[in-house]
Amino acid sequence: MAERPGAGFRSLHASRRRLAPELRIAVPRGALFAGTLDLLDRLGIDTAEVRANDRRLLFEEAGIVTMRPSDVPTYVEAGAADLGITGKDVLLEQSDRMVHELRDLGYGRCVMVLATRAGEDRVADALRHLGVVRIATKYPRVAAAHFEATSRQAEIVEVKGSVELAPLTGLVEGIVDLTATGTTLRENDLVIREEIAVCTARLIANPVADKLKAAQIDRLLEQLDGV
Amino acid sequence: MAERIPSGTRDFLPDEMRELRAMTDRLRTVFEGAGYGEVYTPALEFERTFQGDLPAGPAYRLFDEHGNVLVLRADMTVPIARVAATRYASEPPPLRFSYFAHAYRRVRPQRGQSREFLQAGVELIGAPAPAGTAEVLNVLCDALDAAGLENFRVGLGDVMLYPALLRSHGIDEQSGERILALLAKGDFVGVERELAGAELSDADAELLLRVPRIRGGSEVLDGLTGPLLEAGMGMQDVLELLSPQTAARVIFDFGLVRSIGYYTGAVFQVYDPAYGTPLGSGGRYDELLGRFGRPLPAVGFALNVERLHIALTGEERGRG
């Protein structure tokens, strides 16, 4: 017969279980990372481990999983995380994800813009003469929806790297991208022609968790509104 | 190309079929035991029969030799309403039917979300609220118990509740439609923005924002006033007619909005922590039968059999 665990083991086990977090939160690495960890600290969630470990992704004891911002809706939709924090830009691009958008958290403010090279507006020029414009973006669905909503024909060129390069080399006439301060745009001789949407950090929830863990989620929201 | 199958469809092999069959047998026993005789209707219906009830729209359209537009059925509720109104035109209500049949919807294919999917459900025709609603909820919970699902809950709401509340606060039709569409998407930030744009007192805006977030046990029905009281009393009436086992499964949810065009009153959704999307849904459709010439109140539910299978497997794994 196996040795029974001693009292010490049991109490350790019990305290672990008591501390096991009620909610698992998907936290975005990147631009929203610092702001998100600060917010979680204020909500009483211990993020020291997360701050100390650059490479670890799963922090079971704090109920935190870290990932790219664009992966957050994927995890939350599937219920692999109950809650998640990501940018509105990500939610706009993945608008068919079935997640609940609970709060505008306010931080990480950026603007989704249409930008072209300084000087003559090449987008307007292309539309006038050719009836169609080429637009580079990492947000193909947001860009396509914007041009469709304004009844203009656009060929959307999806790029993975620096979008700013595309108009400078003549690949496209304009770009749709997210900008916080406009510095990168200015440094690449680009100017904002249209503002498409203001994007801030959002708190999202899995629709089933939002019902079955209602009390825990509402408690967190109350804390959040009090902060 | 010949070896491929259309996107969103798939093959079922013997291991899965055995498990699915065992599950549907248990569901069928409960349905038949409660007096719900099984029916089957054509997979093909005329497109006009569905009249845009389902938001996802038909996945497949076909033509017959006369040029009529046909669709693969988007659900079984509409065909059964047609059957009840035509084949049972003079039968005294209530009528009870069950079904196990594939439905077809234009969805983004993923696990538990196919364009061809098996539904198991019942329709109770000619039984008004609250008794009819309670009977169907009891059958639903008994069926899930029989299937072996342990941790499920059923959210119960009313699609008339929030629209009535918006109207009583003077929200105009257009703005109301926008708010309901945002709510259906779960975009509460959008709802808050929309309410901020309406001319409301702070207290009213706060109320309209808070109500769709009300969900929980029967304690949420206490202390309601105004239009909320009426909806709350409707839910209370249903609750009192539920079996104790079913009552223990129900959570009241003021945030449920119309997911299918024909719903007219109580609606419900099945949740299980082992799966991130509802396993099934149902509700009252008191006006659908009238469309086929025999106006009768009705209520029913449909379970997505594939999702139920995933949830059962997930629960088993969780138990280790």
What attributes does this structure have?
heterodimer, A: 227 residues, alpha/beta, D-Maltodextrin-Binding Protein, domain 2, 2 domains, 6-stranded mixed sheet, 5-stranded mixed sheet, elongated, disordered N terminus, B: 320 residues, alpha+beta, BirA Bifunctional Protein, domain 2, 9-stranded mixed sheet, 3-stranded antiparallel sheet, 12 strands, 42% helix
Please tell me about this protein's structure.
- The complex is a heterodimer of chains A (227) and B (320).
- With 227 residues, chain A is α/β, with parallel strands linked by helices.
- Chain A has two domains: 7-108 and 201-226, D-Maltodextrin-Binding Protein, domain 2, CATH 3.40.190; 110-199, D-Maltodextrin-Binding Protein, domain 2, CATH 3.40.190.
- Chain A contains eleven helices and eleven strands.
- Chain A has helices spanning 7-19, 33-42, 48-52, 72-78, 88-93, 122-129, 140-149, 165-168, 183-187, 207-212, 214-226; strands at residues 25-28, 58-59, 64-67, 83-87, 100-104, 110-117, 133-137, 154-158, 174-179, 190-199, 201-205.
- Chain A has a six-stranded mixed β-sheet with strand order 2-3-1-4-11-5, with helices on both faces.
- The termini of chain A are far apart.
- Chain B is an alpha+beta fold and 320 residues long.
- Chain B starts with 13 loop residues before the first helix and ends with a helix.
- Chain B is globular, with a radius of gyration of 20 Å.
- In chain B, 42% of the residues lie in helices and 21% in strands.
- Chain B has a domain at 32-158 and 249-319: Bira Bifunctional Protein, Domain 2 (BirA Bifunctional Protein, domain 2).
- Chain B has helices at 14-33, 47-50, 77-87, 131-147, 161-168, 173-185, 188-197, 202-210, 226-241, 244-249, 288-291, 305-319, and strands at residues 37-38, 44-46, 61-63, 69-72, 95-104, 116-125, 153-158, 215-216, 250-253, 266-272, 275-284, 298-304.
- In chain B, strands 1-5-6-12-11-10-7-9-8 form a nine-stranded mixed β-sheet, sandwiched between helices. Chain B has a three-stranded antiparallel β-sheet with strand order 2-4-3.
- Chain B has twelve helices and twelve strands.
- The A-B interface holds A 77-80, 96, 98-104, 202, 205-212, 214-215, 218 and B 108, 153, 155, 186-190, 192, 213, 215-216, 251, 253, 269, 271-273, 275-278.
